[in-house]
Design goal:
The chain is of the alpha/beta class and 322 residues long. It folds into three domains: 91 residues, Beta Barrel (Elongation Factor Tu (Ef-tu), domain 3); 112 residues, Nucleotide-binding domain of ferredoxin-NADP reductase (FNR) module (Rossmann fold); 84 residues, Ubiquitin-like (UB roll), CATH 3.10.20. It is 18% helix and 30% strand. The longest helix is centred in the middle third of the chain and has 14 residues. The structure holds FE2/S2 (inorganic) cluster (FES). FE2/S2 (inorganic) cluster (FES) binds next to loops.
Length: 322
């Protein structure tokens, strides 16, 4: 299945998980067909009938092939994605989705995995913990939300406390006596060989980035739900499409993706924020101006791949494998 192909699923059930958070169980359509396998930390693109594409992490156990389960936070500033899922989509409806893709992989061999989750950021981490449980590995979870009523999947998280290999810390900063999660303290206490993961709102991820600057990059993992910086729209460079031999001029005010779509060229894309990895393209020549949150710093320095929805060019010309 290529990046741009979709498969059909049916909404088998929906459940209330917390204030503003619903979960959706998606079964293959037609039924009894196995869904593509996925690894812990994967997400799918959901293609909504209103034309929007949104990415949601898979939170069920990665060995399951009969269903995908996603959690959706209703964004008060929704541009129609989470609002559609909450207000329009109902059990029995069908949806087009992408095959799972993983920008937040789990290091399964780590002697200890430490997870820091904020709000809906718990979703990929639940799938990771279920995988570590299947492997009998040691893990810790630090889960923060404003209050218990805002904490999605709290029952599932509480049940994880029964795992003898686990340590679970809950933190509700807007409850009486509540406090903020001490991310710097958690990172300071990590054993040298631990891998640490964070998924949550931007301020949490910024605190995590700051706290982990001294750690080996290979042991630090994060997933963003929103862009951290604006897309490169300065324009003023040429993009040569190696496969077709076409060239396009990216104008000021456009991303590379905007420019290509305007020329009737339709590369795969989804979030348009540099967080999902759908629009990744191989760079054959030139120097990108990387603005995404998918590639590691080492990948960015190598200049062999780029996200064309948000990244621009530092060179006068880019040659892309398109
Ligand atoms: S479309 Fe999601 S990273 Fe570009």
């Amino acid at each position: 299945m290529s990046n741009s192909e979709t498969l059909q699923v049916r909404v088998k059930s929906m459940a209330w998980e917390a204030d503003g958070i619903l979960s959706y169980e998606l079964w293959p359509e037609p039924p009894r067909k196995a869904l593509p396998p996925f690894s812990a930390g994967s997400h799918i693109d959901v293609h909504l009938p209103n034309g929007l594409i949104r990415n949601y992490s898979l939170l069920n156990a990665p060995h399951e092939r009969h269903r995908y389960v996603i959690g959706v936070n209703k964004d008060p500033n929704s541009r129609g994605g989470s609002r559609y899922l909450h207000e329009v989509l109902r059990p029995g409806d069908t949806l087009a989705i992408s095959a799972p893709r993983n920008n937040f992989p789990l290091e399964e061999s780590a002697p200890l995995s430490v997870f820091i989750a904020g709000g809906i950021g718990i979703t990929p981490i639940l799938g990771m913990i279920r995988r570590l449980q299947a492997l009998g590995r040691h893990w810790q979870l630090h889960y923060a939300a404003r209050t218990r009523r805002n904490a999605g999947f709290l029952d599932a998280v509480q049940a994880l406390r029964d795992d003898a290999n686990a340590e679970v810390q809950l933190c509700f900063d807007r409850e009486p006596g509540g406090r903020m999660l001490d991310i710097a303290g958690i990172v300071r206490a990590l054993p040298a060989s631990a891998h640490v993961y964070c998924c949550g709102p931007l301020p949490m991820l910024e605190a995590f980035e700051q706290a982990t600057t001294g750690l080996p990059p290979a042991q630090v993992h994060r997933e963003y739900f929103a862009a951290r910086e604006s897309a490169a729209t300065e324009g003023g460079f040429t993009v040569e499409l190696a496969r077709s031999g076409r060239s396009v001029e990216v104008q000021a005010g456009q991303t590379i993706l905007d420019c290509l779509l305007g020329q009737g060229i339709e590369p795969p894309y989804s979030c348009q924020e540099g967080i999902c990895g759908t629009c990744e393209v191989r760079v054959l020549d030139g120097v990108p101006d990387h603005r995404d949150l998918v590639l590691s710093e080492a990948d960015k320095a190598a200049n062999q791949r780029m996200m064309i929805c948000c990244s621009g060019a530092r060179s006068r010309k880019l040659v892309l494998d398109l």
